[in-house]
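so my prof wants the structure for this chain in the C-alpha cells format not the other one, which i didnt know existed until like an hour ago. anyway here's the sequence
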Amino acid sequence: MVESAIKQLFTELGIPPKISIEGKIKHYSAKNIDIFVGDIFEISQEMVGSVDAIYDRAALVALPQKTRLQYTLHLMKITNKSPQLLIAYHYDQDIVQGPPFSISNEEVGLHYKDNYDLTLIYSNDVEGGMKGKCKAKENVWLLRNN
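here's what i got, hopefully its the right format
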C-alpha cells in the first residue's frame, strides 16, 4: 500500500493517527484502525494482536505464484487463522500477464483447504474482461476455520 494513500485515509476520516516504528514496519493507528506499512513478512502476530477477520481484495492476486504459498502461510500464522473474505480473479494468464495474477479455484483450495472451510459466495464475469484482453471471472470466497 502506498503510504500517501494511508495519510489520505486518515485525513478523510478526520482522525489524526498515532505513528510508530516497529523494526522495519511503520504503524499508523487510531481507534479501531491499524495499518502497517512495509514488507508483510516483517510483521509478527505480536504486532497485529487479535484479528477478527481478514479482507484480501488485492494482496494474494498481486503476488507471483512462487510467493503465494509463503504469503498464505504467514497470513494464517500472524492472524491465528482468522476468517477471511478473499477476492480472486481467474483468466487465461497466457493471454494477459499479471498482476493481478490469475488464481483458480483449485489454487485457493491448495492454499487454504487444510485450515478453512471454503465457500465460494460470489462468481461473476468481469465486465470488459481482464484488461480488455480476455474473459475473466471474479470469485469471492468466504474462508472460515474448520
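also thought this was worth mentioning. The radius of gyration is 17 Å.
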